[in-house]
Amino acid sequence: NADCNVEGGESVVILDIEESRGNQIDQSTFPPELPITGNSGSDIVLEIEEGRSEGGRLFRLSGKRLRLTQPLDREDGDLSSLVFQLSCTVISTGVKRNIPVIVRITDVNDHSPAFLDEPYEVTIDELTPIGTTIFRGIKTQDPDSGSNGLVEFSVVPGDPDSSADGFGYFSIPLPHRGEVIVNHTLDYENTRRYFVQILARDRSADVASRRSSTTVLTVNIRDN
């Protein structure tokens, strides 16, 4: 196999790297070494081509490994991949060629869902039938990508010692839609205002890394 070729007969090197957690810059690419034929330093010389591409400025070379020079935030400018050129020189002949490199950036679940247009409040009649949708305005924003940015909603217990806790009286039947329905008969004489605690949780494939936020929907009951 001649030196300075991409293994497998490919014309482009494609690598994956996880975005940084905070200021992290020590994460490795996958695969960890550039799949280019020849031993770096004895057979070939690899260099990142400095030029118009920002990608080349974010990495430095350590042998055949790419090392980050600064943290990578996928959400900063919707950064999903970096493209740059490597030059590879065969030491024995001086022949030099350029090899395109694409580094795909995978998302880390580093944002919690943020509720929009708060506070949430609605007034309904005490005779509102069970199953009626009373509120459709719950919205969130989560800049993470893929399942990390998908949000599910649910009604969760608030203050168990308060008759104003809306848990049990109201529910969200479709987790992917922030629509609240009446779940139980209401009685103005008993409770005139409910506080419904709503949980938004993202759907990261890694259950342990799922992030969540809570908000309150105030439901005022109108006497009939």
TrEMBL record:
<dbReference type="GO" id="GO:0007043">
    <property type="term" value="P:cell-cell junction assembly"/>
</dbReference>
<keyword id="KW-0677">Repeat</keyword>
<keyword id="KW-0472">Membrane</keyword>
<dbReference type="InterPro" id="IPR002126">
    <property type="entry name" value="Cadherin-like_dom"/>
</dbReference>
<dbReference type="InterPro" id="IPR020894">
    <property type="entry name" value="Cadherin_CS"/>
</dbReference>
<dbReference type="InterPro" id="IPR015919">
    <property type="entry name" value="Cadherin-like_sf"/>
</dbReference>
<dbReference type="GO" id="GO:0005912">
    <property type="term" value="C:adherens junction"/>
</dbReference>
<dbReference type="GO" id="GO:0016342">
    <property type="term" value="C:catenin complex"/>
</dbReference>
<keyword id="KW-0732">Signal</keyword>
<dbReference type="GO" id="GO:0016477">
    <property type="term" value="P:cell migration"/>
</dbReference>
<keyword id="KW-1133">Transmembrane helix</keyword>
<dbReference type="GO" id="GO:0034332">
    <property type="term" value="P:adherens junction organization"/>
</dbReference>
<dbReference type="GO" id="GO:0005509">
    <property type="term" value="F:calcium ion binding"/>
</dbReference>
<dbReference type="GO" id="GO:0007156">
    <property type="term" value="P:homophilic cell adhesion via plasma membrane adhesion molecules"/>
</dbReference>
<keyword id="KW-0812">Transmembrane</keyword>
<dbReference type="GO" id="GO:0016339">
    <property type="term" value="P:calcium-dependent cell-cell adhesion via plasma membrane cell adhesion molecules"/>
</dbReference>
<dbReference type="InterPro" id="IPR039808">
    <property type="entry name" value="Cadherin"/>
</dbReference>
<dbReference type="GO" id="GO:0044331">
    <property type="term" value="P:cell-cell adhesion mediated by cadherin"/>
</dbReference>
<dbReference type="GO" id="GO:0045296">
    <property type="term" value="F:cadherin binding"/>
</dbReference>
<dbReference type="GO" id="GO:0000902">
    <property type="term" value="P:cell morphogenesis"/>
</dbReference>
<protein>
    <submittedName>
        <fullName>Uncharacterized protein</fullName>
    </submittedName>
</protein>
<dbReference type="Pfam" id="PF00028">
    <property type="entry name" value="Cadherin"/>
</dbReference>
<keyword id="KW-0106">Calcium</keyword>
<dbReference type="GO" id="GO:0008013">
    <property type="term" value="F:beta-catenin binding"/>
</dbReference>
